[in-house]
Amino acid sequence: MGIKACPYCAEEIQEEAVICKHCKSSLKETDAPKEAGVTTAKSDKAFGAATGFFGGLGCGIWLIIFGLLISLTGIGAIIGIPLALAGLLMPFIAPVMGLAQVSGQCPHCTKHLVASSIKGAVTCKYCKKRVVIDKGKFVRVD
């Protein structure tokens, strides 16, 4: 009966354990994380950039439409043209500014999470618990 480290929270557990007593993660071979998050960092950045681009594209389309409609009123051109220009740039600005993603620690297992800010809640990929996104931060849900 030996002791090993949990692949999710690094706490000491028995080798025969099926579920970690600390973080409640399943310890089946198929569920174990791959190389210490090396591959997930790249996929999280790609996810954030793609979400930012498409979120910015959706916002940009509305800015272009409202900008053009406002510019048709004559004096509204002062406001409408900059709105339309902002709409054209929004798909490229949103991913850079990080408007599409929230980054922080899971309040349950303290592992690093990255999620889309468009979602209201996510499930932590490490401890499998639900986490709510509130004002750009991860909040525990019991």
Short note summarizing the structure:
The chain has 142 residues and is an alpha+beta fold.
Number of helices: 2
Using the alpha-carbon principal axes, give the shape.
Answer: rod-shaped
How do the strands of the widest beta sheet line up side by side? 5-6-7
Which percent range fits the helix content?
25-40%
Contiguous low-pLDDT stretches (5 residues minimum) are 30-41
Secondary structure layout plus pairing:
Layout: E1 3-5, E2 12-14, H1 38-71, H2 77-97, E3 101-105, E4 112-116, E5 121-123, E6 130-134, E7 137-140
Antiparallel strand pairs: 1-2, 3-4, 5-6, 6-7
Describe this protein's structure.
With 142 residues, the protein is of the alpha+beta class. It has three domains: 1-32; 38-97; 100-140, no CATH class. Helices cover 39% and strands 20% of the residues. The protein has helices at residues 38-71, 77-97; strands at residues 3-5, 12-14, 101-105, 112-116, 121-123, 130-134, 137-140. It has a three-stranded antiparallel sheet, with no helix packed on it. Strand 1 and strand 2 (12-14) form a beta hairpin. Helix 1 (38-71) packs antiparallel against helix 2 (77-97). The protein is rod-shaped and about 80 Å long. Residues 30-41 have low confidence and may be disordered.
